[in-house]
Amino acid sequence: MGITQSSKSYDLPYIPDNKPQPSNENSPELTDLQTELIRGSWEKVKTNKKYHGERLFHKLFDVAPHLQELFPFGSDLTNPMFTMHALNIMNTLDLAVQNLDKLDILVPKLRELGQMHAAFELTEVEFQYVGESLIWVLETGLGDDFTPKLKRAWCDAFAIISSVMLGAIKDING
User: Fold this and answer.
1) Which of 27, 51, 58, 60 could cross-link 160 (Cys pair, CB 3.0–4.6 Å)?
2) Where in the sequence does UniProt note compositional bias of the Polar residues kind (predicted)?
3) Which of 51, 15, 6 is nearest to 129 (CA)?
4) Ranked by mean pLDDT, which of 9-18, 73-82, 83-92 comes out on top?
5) Residue 5 DSSP label
6) CA–CA distance, 23 with 84 (Å, rounded to integer)
7) How wide is the angle at C-alpha 52 spanned by C-alphas 138 and 46, nearest 5°?
8) For residue 60, which of 138, 118, 126, 149 has the smallest C-alpha distance?
9) Amino acid 75: pLDDT
10) DSSP class of residue 16?
């Protein structure tokens, strides 16, 4: 599946073949093995959240430069607000990873985050760009440790995260 923006077409490898479609709390759960794989890889990534968070946004703005206008720091990636937002997304991912097997805790937090983003009228397309950027950060950060099984696990996890957040956005925006 790809998305065309201007004259570029982006392959979005994070979207699983059986991507969950729900827009509410009924998102499917990950397997125990997927949860274990994600947590093991996250331990390596979270040691430098600032670095990886900034890389995620650099990649995001590379594949979707028009998204810069949604952020108060715009294209000024030296602005402290940029670093703060990069850390915020990594802290949210940390919360998600910690609670992958506790959806009763995770889903309300993700819905709240989705509601906070409703004013930006985000769609699945923007989440696909973020997902692509996240997978790129993980793949380049973990190198050979980023196996196909690990990639599938992260793809499935991000599909769940994005579907819950999008559900909250749709509840507000219609």
Assistant:
1) 27
2) 20-29
3) 15
4) 83-92
5) E
6) 28
7) 80
8) 126
9) 85
10) -
User: Where residue 166 falls among pLDDT bands split at 50, 70, 90?
Assistant: very high
Asked if residue 128 has pLDDT above 80, the reply is yes
Residue 160 host element (H or E) = helix 148-173
Give, in words, the CATH class of 40-173. Answer: mainly alpha
Query: Under 8 Å CB-to-CB from 91, ≥6 apart: which residues?
Result: 49
How many other CB atoms are there within 10 angstroms of residue 3's CB atom? Answer: 16
Q: How would residue 28 be classed by pLDDT, with cut points 50, 70 and 90?
A: low
Q: Cα angle vertex 42, ends 34, 35, to 5°? A: 20
Contact 69, 83 (CB under 8 A): no
Higher local confidence (pLDDT), 113 or 4: 113
Helix (H) or strand (E) holding 9: strand 8-11
